[in-house]
């Protein structure tokens, strides 16, 4: 008799605090047999895990985590694969589906959305994403920098609000400065810029600045930060960053 396949739930945990998670995300973790994830994300949901079997690994082990989740589901377990923010936005969903697609028979996969970093940071700043915006990661680990530069220039030239993920790391300390230069070829120096570090977490920090002045904040920006560069219509009012949708007020 064949063993029934388990299920992999790719769970978006949002910024990490339980109150920012959906009810479905909490339920998937609580009802799972096993929880797998990057060690920081596993730590953030430990109150929901209890004594479940848990595997927490380092950054860079994404493929291994997905393979383990699929293999364990193949043995009949219901696995929660936790992913920061939304699993379908720079998260684990796509990779898990690729890995599951190689398995025969493939386990059931459920993608459970979460609050993404862009949404969390935007809420902290005000309402900067009320009109069209482009989201670009500055990490060149999986995408050539030449392609990232083309995307930055295209988004800036089209007057999108530009959201920058993975803006600056120790190994890529100069790429954010280069991104700023590219955007400034299309935007004025007084263009509003909002920066949020650790959006929705206990150590959350935020800064309001402009394209011209954001250089002074470079050292404060890291991989836990998100940078939102306004469009030509974005402005600050009463400490809030606003991109008007076009309604008459």
Order of helices and strands: EHEHHEHEHEHEEHEHEEEEE
Oligomer: single chain
The radius of gyration over CA amounts to 20 Å
Number of domains: 2
Largest sheet: 5 strands, parallel
Stretches where pLDDT falls below 50 for ≥5 residues?
Answer: none
Spatial shape:
elongated
Category by helix and strand content: alpha/beta
Number of helices: 8
Going by CATH, what is the homologous superfamily of the largest domain? Tetrapyrrole methylase, C-terminal domain
> Which percent range fits the helix content?
25-40%
| Average residue pLDDT | 94
Could you say what the CATH topology of the largest domain is called?
A: Methyltransferase, Cobalt-precorrin-4 Transmethylase, Domain 2
Strands ordered across the widest β-sheet: 3-2-4-1-5
Termini gap: 67 Å
How many individual β-strands?
13
How much beta, percentage-wise? 15-25%
| CATH level 1 class label of the largest domain | Alpha Beta
The CATH architecture designation of the largest domain is 2-Layer Sandwich
């Amino acid at each position: 008799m064949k063993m029934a396949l388990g299920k992999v739930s790719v769970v978006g945990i949002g910024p990490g605090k339980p109150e920012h998670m959906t009810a479905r995300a909490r339920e998937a973790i609580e009802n799972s047999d096993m929880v797998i994830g990057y060690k920081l994300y596993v730590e953030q949901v430990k109150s929901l895990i209890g004594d479940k079997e848990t595997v927490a690994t380092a950054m860079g082990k994404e493929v291994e985590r997905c393979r383990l989740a699929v293999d364990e589901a193949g043995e009949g377990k219901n696995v929660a694969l936790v992913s920061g923010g939304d699993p379908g936005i720079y998260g684990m969903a796509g990779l898990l589906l690729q890995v599951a697609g190689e398995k025969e028979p493939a386990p059931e996969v459920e993608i459970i959305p979460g609050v993404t970093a862009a949404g969390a940071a935007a809420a902290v700043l005000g309402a900067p994403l009320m009109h069209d915006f482009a989201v670009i990661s500055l990490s060149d680990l999986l995408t050539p920098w030449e392609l990232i530069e083309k995307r930055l220039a295209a988004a800036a030239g089209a007057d999108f609000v530009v959201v920058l993920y993975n803006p600056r790391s120790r190994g890529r300390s100069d790429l954010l400065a280069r991104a700023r230069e590219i955007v400034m070829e299309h935007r004025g120096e007084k263009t509003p810029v909002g920066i949020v570090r650790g959006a929705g977490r206990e150590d959350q920090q935020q800064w309001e600045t402009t394209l011209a002045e954001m250089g002074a904040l470079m050292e404060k920006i890291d991989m836990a930060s998100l940078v939102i560069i306004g469009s030509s219509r974005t402005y600050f009012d009463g400490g809030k960053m606003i991109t008007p949708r076009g309604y008459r007020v």
